[in-house]
Every structure is written in structure tokens, then in C-alpha cells.
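Deliverable D2.4 — example input (C-alpha cells):
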């Protein structure tokens, strides 16, 4: 069985043309377990099988394994099946880039005909993603300076994460698509209610910005209620950054009687280059 570093090197050997140096924007050549550009900037594949392209320290404080593990269990239990099913209808064959892939479960579960690329700034997330059998390449990368060549992707996936439309358009092939998931008003309303957070989320500015960037835009509402398995109800309380601003007293009270359902209310935005 191939080691993770060997698997990544084998993938990159056949796909090095899809990458570019984040320092000088020149092409890479794979040499052993290192990507080396024409100006000799070098980025190594580590033993976990991913490359760190960041020029700053990765996030090791906010998005950590403590949050990612409950999130993974809920995704694997089917909490977002309706979202993934809808996304799969609009992916295009070729190569797919998952922006802010986190711990990689969305990318892993997505049925896709082609190569998968995922990146994040969260070190714990990418390390967890390498534990999955994803057919593709993972990296720590900067959203504002992607280490990917122009026109490399047919589909960009943007699930609950920030966007950089300048970089998206640069790495998109002709007639490629961006599939963006944004939360709508009732998203995780049970979590907001138990934490005392107002149900006042308004995604209109995000949606309008997307439509300004892509003249050909389709919008689909997804509204489902997921019955949380009993053994995952406490995970639900810990899967989101919503808990970061909540006092320990409120958290303790919530854990005594966690929600039994989770509302998944989102908008799928489909933009074409």
C-alpha cells in the first residue's frame, strides 16, 4: 500500500501543470517529493501527503480538530446529504477545487467524475482530510493567492467559506462553474435558539455580490430538517463557530438537553464563467 507522500507524488507527477508557484507564479516541476519552480522556489510534500504553500502561519487556533471531529461525524451521518445531492447535479467533468475544504468530508463524499483538489488555512483540517481516501491533492493555501495555474478547474466548490472572485475567475476554465453554498435565515436555527443567538441572518448581500460577479447565475433554495441521532446530539452543539461567543454556563445548560433536529436552510448559487 502506498504511503500518503507517495500517493500525492504520484498524483502530482501527472498534474503538475495545474499548479503554479505562489511566490513568482511560474510553473512547477516535480522532483522526488518536491515541487520546484523555474526560480528554484521549493515546496515539499510532507509525510502526511499535503503541501504547505502558505507564506504565513496556518490557523491552529480557531478551526481545530475539536470542532472538525463533531462536524465530520454529522456530515457522515447524512446531515448535508440533500446539499451534496443538489451540488452533484451541477458539477462539470474535469477538475474540481474545494475552497476551504476543512477536514475534507464534503469533498470525500461528493460523487465527482474527475480529479479533486482541496485547500484550507486550517492545519488540523487538512491533516484530517489526509486521513480520507480522496482522489486528488490537498494543500494549505491562501485564498488570495492560489497555487494553481490559470484555467485549471471546471468546477469550484465554495461551501460556507469566503470567496475571492478574482482568483476564482483566474483558475476557472472556459465555461467553468462556481457552486457556492450560503446559509439562509433558518440555518441551524436550533443551535441559535439554544445559544440565545438571534435568528437574523441575512444573506442578500452575499447573493447580490455573487450575481454581480457572474451574469449567468442560478439560485436554488434547500430547506431540510435533519433528525440528529441521539449519540450525535452533543456533537451538534460543538460543530459550528456559533459556540465561540457563548458563555460556559449557556454551553453547560445546552449539553443537558441538546437539540434533536438540525435545520439545513441554504442557498445554492450557480455561476458560470
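Example output (designed residues):
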Amino acid at each position: 500500500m502506498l504511503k500518503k507522500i507517495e500517493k500525492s507524488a504520484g498524483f502530482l507527477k501527472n498534474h503538475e501543470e495545474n499548479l503554479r508557484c505562489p511566490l513568482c507564479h511560474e510553473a512547477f516541476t516535480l522532483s522526488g517529493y518536491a515541487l520546484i519552480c523555474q526560480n528554484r522556489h521549493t515546496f515539499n510534500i510532507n509525510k502526511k501527503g499535503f503541501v504547505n504553500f502558505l507564506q504565513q502561519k496556518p490557523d491552529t487556533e480557531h478551526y481545530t480538530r475539536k470542532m472538525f471531529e463533531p462536524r465530520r461525524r454529522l456530515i457522515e451521518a447524512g446531515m448535508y446529504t440533500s446539499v451534496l445531492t443538489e451540488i452533484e447535479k451541477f458539477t462539470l467533468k474535469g477538475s474540481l477545487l474545494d475552497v476551504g475544504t476543512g477536514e475534507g468530508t464534503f469533498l470525500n463524499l461528493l460523487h465527482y467524475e474527475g480529479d479533486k483538489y482541496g485547500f484550507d488555512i486550517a492545519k488540523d483540517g487538512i491533516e484530517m482530510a489526509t486521513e480520507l481516501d480522496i482522489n486528488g491533492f490537498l494543500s494549505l493555501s491562501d485564498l488570495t493567492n492560489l497555487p494553481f495555474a490559470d484555467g485549471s478547474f471546471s468546477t469550484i466548490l465554495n461551501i460556507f467559506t469566503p470567496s475571492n472572485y478574482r482568483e476564482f475567475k483566474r483558475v476557472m476554465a472556459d465555461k467553468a462553474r462556481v457552486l457556492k453554498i450560503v446559509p439562509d435565515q433558518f440555518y441551524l436555527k436550533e443551535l441559535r435558539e439554544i445559544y440565545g443567538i438571534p435568528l437574523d441572518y441575512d444573506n442578500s448581500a452575499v447573493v447580490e455580490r455573487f450575481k454581480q460577479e457572474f451574469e449567468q447565475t442560478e439560485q436554488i433554495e434547500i430547506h431540510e430538517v435533519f433528525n440528529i441521532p441521539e449519540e450525535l446530539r452533543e456533537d451538534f452543539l460543538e460543530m459550528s463557530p456559533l459556540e465561540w461567543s457563548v458563555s460556559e454556563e449557556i454551553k453547560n445548560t445546552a449539553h443537558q438537553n441538546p437539540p434533536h433536529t438540525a435545520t439545513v436552510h441554504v442557498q445554492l448559487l450557480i455561476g458560470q464563467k
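The chain has a mean pLDDT of 95.
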